[in-house]
Amino acid sequence: CAASLVGVGSAGMASSPCGDGNFDCGLQIQTRSVEQTLIPLVSQITTLINHKDKLKKTEKTLRAVQRVGQAVSVAVGRFVAVGEAIAAENEDLKDEMGLACFEARRAGTAIAQLTDVSSLEQCEGDGRSTVFSDRTGMVKAARMLLSSVTKVLVLADCIVIKQIISSRNKVLVTLEQLERVSTFQEFVQIFSQFGNEMVEFAHLTGDRQNDLKDEKKRARMAAARAVLEKCTMMLLTASKTCLRHPDCESARINKEAVFQRMRLALEQVIEIVTDTRSGGEARALPVSIYAGIKDFKVKVEGLRDSLYCVSCEAVAALLEALMEKTEDFTDSAYTSHEQRETIIQLCQITRQETKQLINTWRHAQSLKAKEATDEMELSILKTCQSVSDLRRELHRVAVGRATELLKLHSDHLVLQALKASGGDGNLEAVADYAGTLNEHKEQLVETCRLLCHISGTEPLEITCIHAEETFRVIGPQIISAAQTLALHPTSKIAKENLDVFCEAWESQLCDIAILLKEINDVFEGRRGKHSANLKTVKAAKLDAEEQTTIAKLGLELCLLTSDVDSEVERWDEQDHEMVRLCQIISSMAYSMYLFTRGEGLLKTTLDLFHQAEVRQHSFSLIGFLIESVRSAIKSNESPGKDGSIYY
């Protein structure tokens, strides 16, 4: 009901409803839907307010004015009815929402009365006011209407936020239950519930992300949701590995890191939707070199308008802060000697030009000049040019470094070596390759930090920070997963777990390639739509309900695959016909799960439908096969080598 409220009368103009100082609602609008709902109302009221005082009162004019007034009144009536329904359903907001609805209805009635000009002469004769005679009354009614309507919308938006918080709380409770399970059967049951709750949470937060007006918040939300999406699969395999090998320390470390990362991502989502942090302080991004250069140039170029808008000391301090940040480039062990010398030289040139600017600036102030002198104008141009040259060089170094690293890691040799060493049970080799992976991780982390400095927009800065954190976390997780496999080289689930973390690393490298393109587009003035590392489904093909359904089915398929693999792994006779058929069906189910994530070999819905039609009879056997395998194991038809039944 709260979501439907913001859809009432959502078509309209492209301008912001709160941009007009005459109708400042005094409430901060966070979402596009609230803003878009207000736009047509503002348009209609503006039409009434801005009519010409000496407008000829023709019959056509009278009908037009009355038509607009009636439209506003009817729209307010429908709107208030929905608002009152929301108030009845939400006791904690009932009084506040009820008052706002009452004020909106009263303002709508006042506007209807003021625009009731069908009998204009009679109105003027008996002293009644109309839109033509009481402009002040119309403005007052319009203010009240916009203020009350906005308040209703913001209160309705609070309910949406409460839904997201409630959904997060359910996920957290189930997450804690998953962390404490001790049997595989219990885990499968709870994970199924967890999957449904995560789908609901993803749906709510996805809608919220698309609705947010602030680009930085949208980028942060996208980053947090990407973590949750990828960690869901990691949680599945890491937990299964721990259940299979409960005494393995590396498996426990691997699992705990996944749970911790999911909790942090869930907390970040709530920080974004509530616009607060758990500690109460505001979240601030570290100032990048790009932002520092932009601020510096604004201050310098502002001297053309006023010599006294900023102090010489403030400009000098901005420059020194900027020069200090370039040390991230010059102090890096991966920056070549030539690149380091070029950056240092450009910094010196910028310092010299700024010093000359300050000298000419102070001289102009001593002469009581009211505007920049010709000498000062030349210094402004040279200073801005020098800092632009510095930015261009830093961009070249950062992008060049990232491009080289992507080429270097494109073959994924270290990951393949870790998989092979783990599968061979070679702990010494795993340790050697873990050291190499750590070096690669440090290179990628530092490269992401440099890209953040030159990214060009705050959303891209946030994506760079997300990439840096991802490499920092996943590197050690890959190593712990490889150590687990080396300790249990015949464990299929340990191998699957390592594969999942390696895939996450490879996926993040692909995201870096996309990020590089976006950074270059911004630098060259071809700013496109920021992807924020999320694979999105085209709304033209699937509506929200269909997306939610297929996501739930995808998680169920993933669980089904896991269940089948676990049962099949109990069989010693891996060439048995039933085992072979189970493996085929399991592979098909996993392919369909990957399709719901936008991954895998199935690229279109046509591919999905074709595979479903071809193998439809096979899927009907899945439940039967699982039960058959379980029955066979219970009757010891296929025991372990020592006569035991094992996972």
UniProtKB/TrEMBL annotation:
Domain of life: Eukaryota
Keyword tags: Cytoplasm
GO biological process: cell adhesion; Rho protein signal transduction
Location of this chain's protein in the cell: Cytoplasm
Gene3D superfamilies: Alpha-catenin/vinculin-like
An annotated GO cellular component: cytoplasm
InterPro entries in the record: Alpha-catenin/vinculin-like_sf, Alpha_catenin, CTNNAL1, Vinculin/catenin
One example GO MF annotation: actin filament binding
Chief location: cytoplasm
Family, as annotated: Belongs to the vinculin/alpha-catenin family.
Protein's UniProt name: Alpha-catulin
